[in-house]
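Incident log entry.

Two folding requests arrived from the same account within the same minute. Monitoring flagged them as a possible duplicate submission, but the sequences differ. Recording both here for audit purposes.

Request one:
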Amino acid sequence: MDWKYNPDDYISAHDQRYIDLAERCECYRAARLEYFRARVKTMIRHVSPMVHDALADMGLRTADVIDRFRVPDDWPEKSLRTHDTFRPGGYDFLSGGRLTDGGGSERWHRRFARRHQGVAGCVICDPDDRDDRDEKLGFRLCGEGLEIALLTSTYLLTSSAGKGRLHVAQQLPLTIGSAMVGRPVGAIVSHPLLAGRDYPVKRVMQPVGGTSLIVFETGSTAVANE
């Protein structure tokens, strides 16, 4: 039987150290991800009803969407940030181009996705699997709640602390805005997440930039153990 030298059969001590290090790093990444997901699940105390409706449409549970959350690069060295990344005045959903601008839509979607990075969150496709240029749907940890953000070509719908915010790309006349107060928001904007739900409008504001902000009550529901 002839034997031939094959350098691939031999691993130097130097190479072996790198292999061992890579294996340890892979074990660390897996353990870090498992701990991150477990940590987020224990932090969530309540969920927006709009989150429940969106997940039900996709056949998902809250645990399923948390398993899609990306681990922030600086965690656990720094604690998880749970601030509202879509708070009024903190995010201009029209800047950077709109979907109707064609080439600007990619920048627009990237800005939306970045709001779910650095915090516990994720962006997924819309429930109906339509062209991904139509809608972007995201979930994120905000305070002690699991909240939603839905971006379309004409409005941004978000939730936080028992309230919903509908930021529309149109400046509504003050008389129309006043008439909306007390009415269900689903009677104003047609969307499956709002239709048939008693989410009363509390106030209508007009930030700068030719837009309107409609704030409505949604309440929240306690998280069931899954």
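Request two (distinct sequence, not a duplicate):
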Amino acid sequence: MDKKRLVSVLIGEGFICIIAFFLMKDQAIGYDSIISFPFVQMGYFLRILSLNSPFGNVIAWVAYVLFCLAPLILLSIRIRKGIQKSEDLLLLLLSVLLFFGMYYMINPGFAEGILAPSTLKGSWKIGVSSVVYIVLIGYIIMRLLRRIQTGMTDRLLIDLEVMLITFAGISVLALTFALPFDIMGEMKAVEAANTMAGIDFSLTHYFILLRSIIKMIPLFYQIRIILAGYDLVQALKTERYSQSVVDKAVQLVSKCRQAIIVTVIASIFINLLQLIAGAKLIHSNYHIDIPLTSILIVIMTMLLAKYFAHSSKIKEEMDLFV
């Protein structure tokens, strides 16, 4: 996928997320709703299917078993091919967790008092779903690390390309869907915590919105940095020792530096503004934003840019010598 097509896809994703936000803004969507998807929905569907008829009950059981056995099936395939690794044991753990968790998702009444106190109804769903996702993500990361360790350069560039596309998609989702819900949630939480009559929330809401815009800036630059990194990968795939690689690396450094400068200035601005208007604010939130990750990326990319430039120069000298 070339960069123009990737940008078009990301813009399309952003528009879809914005439309979805406006359609769903009156619904209580938070971390619990996102992290428990699709387990809660699947449990509800299987429960309805099971209670519908004896035949539906059989179908529900078959679907439940097949869904929970999926990691074990993948493990058995890898063992049969002789390509299993130590991290594949996580597939066994994942299958056990799915059997355990999905049973309670289908029969939520049995979970109260076992997985969570009866006073915290539904909190166990977040715990079960989180653990399943943690094991799944942990397995993917370990597989990826092994792939990076043993893979050839061309294969690694393709993997890096896929990772950058994935990170870009997640960043757009966070920027255009998750963050707006966080803004609404914070505003409602402030109002719920201050129920006295006659309180004017206008200025406080304005600062919540302003702080959220400040949060959007690093996400926006993160997408730009990912796209610059994608450009660099494309150049490396074409010709590793070309001047284009050096230019793309320099552009990546430039974007990382911009991200650091803008993030720091924006953080100083919002904190100073809050301090000045502090007496009129019902709720303040001070953050010290130090973009350590971006700083490290800048340093590493600068070193890589110098390495690419040096390698390109050596190759040119070798070509002239030959």
